[in-house]
Amino acid sequence: MTELTDKGMAIRRRVLGGDHVARAEAQKTAFDAPFQSLIADAAWGHVWARDTITLRERSMMTIALLAGLGNDGELALHLRSIPNTGASRDDVIEALLHVAIYAGVPRANHAIAMARDIFAQQDAEQENAR
């Protein structure tokens, strides 16, 4: 591992959670290892680790981009991760309102429904943990 990879993996764990990263690492194969390295270095080590904007702001931008592009799997992952970034549910709806205007109402509508379901599931999990 390089210093960049170490930094990227630390940010990745902070944002997505240690359990998620551990599962991803455990599922890594020789086939997809180069892709996993690319993600650790480029996405997490170069972009997410920059200190020019906050994790909250990066989270909101990422959610808006993923929703606008219709990348549901990654969008769900990042919606679940907002407690780790400092973003709030209010931030999410603001980002998705921008998606409606700039990427289309159907994309925003779908993303809002996803967020609503994910947040309801998180609320239920918290309630059950009490």
Which features does this protein show?
single chain; mainly alpha; AhpD-like; 2 domains
Structure characterization notes:
The structure is a single chain. This protein is mainly α and 130 residues long. The protein has two domains: 1-52, no CATH class; 53-130, Up-down Bundle (AhpD-like). It is built from eight helices and no strands. It has helices at residues 3-16, 18-27, 33-48, 55-69, 72-80, 82-85, 89-102, 105-129. The radius of gyration is 15 Å and the shape is globular. The relative contact order is 0.11.
Main beta sheet strand tally, sense and closure? none
CATH class of the largest domain: Mainly Alpha
CATH level 4 superfamily of the largest domain = AhpD-like
Number of helices: 8
Which runs of at least 5 residues are low in confidence (pLDDT < 50)? none
How many distinct folded domains? Answer: 2
Pattern of helices and strands: HHHHHHHH
Second-tier CATH architecture of the largest domain: Up-down Bundle
Q: Would you tell me the structural class of the helices and strands?
A: mainly alpha
CATH topology-level fold name of the largest domain:
AhpD-like
Question: Which overall shape is indicated by the principal axes computed on the Cα atoms?
Answer: globular
Compute the average pLDDT: 96
Specify Rg, calculated over alpha carbons.
15 Å
First CA to last CA: what distance? 40 Å
Strand percentage: under 5%
Helix content: over 70%
Total number of strands: 0
